[in-house]
Write a structure and sequence with these properties.
With 163 residues, this protein is mainly α. 35% of the residues lie in helices and 7% in strands. Strands 1-2 form a two-stranded antiparallel ribbon. The protein has a two-stranded antiparallel ribbon with strand order 3-4.
Length: 163
Amino acid sequence: MSLTLKIKGFSYIEILATVAILALLATAAVPYFDLIQKRQKESELRHNLRLIRDAIDAYKKASDEGRIINAVGDSGYPKRLEDLTSGIGDDNDTAHRKLFFLRRLPRDPMAISNTSGDVSAAQTWRLRSYDSPPNQPQEGSDVFDVYSSSDQKGLDGVPYSQW
């Protein structure tokens, strides 16, 4: 009667094959997760642009209705992006309560300066004044539109600054 012990387990080759398969799956998954993250940022950019542009349009409408006092020759658009959140006195209200168009100003999710906490949300956007042409947007005396400060291209091939 001989007593032999049989130890069962994995051989080194089986372990190496398993690690190789897992590494292959991981390398295939990384670009997919990068794509998901980029889509999420693009969705946030679209939402933030729509939010700010709607607020700028609401400001202009209030100005056209005479609720905001403008100097002669003013376009009726806000002078600064921060005016949308800081509030402007309602000229039609007897108590002169402020009109607020945004609770907070969203940041540009594609901006390189977005990672720094020293930069305000307004500084992450590029601005276009009412007087500048659409194909060459430039800052001016008012804020007619905003666009991304990123020079990268979106998944559709269009630069974020042209969205």
